Amino acid sequence: MSRTIKVSLVMLRSGAIENCLLGFESISPGQIDAARALGLRPVAVYMKILAPQAYAAAGPALFSNAIQMVKGSSLASLVAVDELTAASTTLISETYKAIEVLSFVGLLYGLIAMFILGLQWLYERRNGWFRYGR
Hints:
The protein is an all-alpha fold and 134 residues long. The protein has a single domain, classed as MetI-like (MetI-like fold, Orthogonal Bundle), CATH 1.10.3720. It has helices at residues 3-25, 29-37, 42-72, 84-95, 98-126. It is elongated and about 70 Å long.
């Protein structure tokens, strides 16, 4: 496994766990009591009450972490990981066309961020959590 993947997994894991825990903490304890009063089993309480609300609260932060992970991967090139920024540095040293190469790399990072934002939009729209444009 390459270093970029390892660094990305560590970043995603730490941020995702923290965001999910904060999502679960944002739920009022009264909702759990109400679900139990209705006679729901613990698994049903989690699947039908807790998880949808927690992921609705944590979703935007999780997608933000994904975008930061993509942007932060350019810092991994300093640790001798061959990726987009390192390849662009090599190309600049061979062609002496820094503006063109860095503009293209910036455009690629922008497209990747827009793709992740599109996934977030679809995720929120699919789950009925779309808050924008009302």
